[in-house]
Amino acid sequence: MKALSRIYTGLIFVFLYAPIVVLIIFSFNQSKSRSVWKGFSLRWYENLFRDSTILEALRTSIAVAVIAAIASTIIGTAAAVGLKKMNKNLRSAMLTLNNIPMVNPDIVTGISMMLLFVAVFGTTGLFRPGFGTLVIAHITFCIPYVVLSVMPKLNQMNPSIYEAAQDLGCPPFRAFMKVVIPEIMPGIITGMMMAFTLSLDDFVISYFTSGSTAQTLPMVIYSMTKRRINPKINALSALMFVIVLTLLVVINVRQIREQKRRKSLKFEA
Q1: Whole-structure pTM value
Q2: What is the C-alpha to C-alpha distance for residues 106 and 114, in angstroms, rounded to an integer?
Q3: Three-state DSSP class for residue 230
Q4: How many helices (H) and strands (E) does the chain have?
Q5: Could you tell me if 25 and 241 are in contact, meaning their C-beta atoms sit under 8 angstroms apart?
Q6: pLDDT of 142-190, one tens digit each?
Q7: Nearest in space to 160 (alpha carbons), one of 185, 187, 186, 180
Q8: Cβ-Cβ contacts under 8 Å for 122 (sequence gap 6 or more)
Q9: What is the 3-state secondary structure (H, E, C) of 58-103?
Q10: How does pLDDT run across 181-224, given as a tens digit for each residue?
C-alpha cells in the first residue's frame, strides 16, 4: 500500500512538472521546432535579451509585482493583527469577506475594478488607467492571500509573550516590532512571496485595469501567442521558473535554519 501511494504521488509530480521540463529543454533547441531536437543553442536567450518589447514588459511586471507585494504585505499583516483582536463572530464574518476575492472569478474582479477606475476618472480626473491603476488592482487582489498566510502564525503565537514584553517596560509599538513580528515572520514572508508570484503571473485583471500605457509580461506573451509561438517564450518561461524556484529554495532553507536555531535556543534555556 505504501509503495502504491508513492507511485501515485510520483505520477502526480510527473504530470505537473513534465511539461515544464520539456519547455526548458526546447528553450535550448537550435531550431524553431517544438517537437524535433536539432542541437543545443543559446540563440533564443540572446534574442530574448535583445527584444525591447519583452524587456520593457518585464520591467513593468517586476515593478508592479514588487510594489504590490510590499504594499499588500504591510496592509494584509495589519489587517490580520486587527482581525485577531476582534471577537470570534465578527472575525469569522470578516474572514469570510476576505475569502470572497480569492474564489471570485478574475474576470469579475477585473471588470469591476475597470468600471470603478473609469467612473472615478470620469468624475474627478483621478485614477487614469495606466501603471497606477494596475498597481492598485494588484494590491487589492493580493491582500486576502497575505491575510490568509499571516493568520495561522498569529493563532500559533502565545499572546503572553507580547504582554510580558510590555510588563518589562517595552512600549506597545516596540514590543510589537520586536516580539510579534519575528514570531509571525514566516507567515509574512510566505504571504509576500505569494503576492509577488500572483502579481507577476496575473493576466485577466491586468488586461482590464492597465489601460493602453502599461503592458505586463503576461499580456505581451498573450499577444505573441496569437501568431506562431516564438521559442523566445520558452526561454523567458524557463528563466522565470528558475528564478521563482531559487527564491522558494532560499526562503525554505532560511526558515528551516531559523526553526533549528530556535529549537537549539529553547533546548539551551
Answers
A1: 0.82
A2: 12
A3: coil
A4: 12, 0
A5: no
A6: 999 999 999 988 888 887 888 888 888 888 888 888 888 888 888 898 8
A7: 180
A8: none
A9: HHHHHHHHHHHHHHHHHHHHHHHHHHHCCCHHHHHHHHHHHHHHHH
A10: 888 888 898 899 889 988 988 889 998 988 777 888 888 888 87
Question: At what angle are helices 2-26 and 232-268 packed, to 10 degrees?
Answer: 130
The C-alpha atoms of residue 214 and residue 219 are separated, in whole angstroms, by 10
DSSP class of residue 104?
Answer: S
CA dihedral of residues 174, 192, 114, 111 (deg, nearest 10): -130
Cell numbers of 168, please? 518589562
Residue type for position 25: I
> Running DSSP on this structure, what letter comes out for residue 176?
I
Q: For residue 47, which of 24, 28, 21, 33 has the smallest C-alpha distance? A: 28
Task: Give the CA radius of gyration of the chain.
Answer: 23
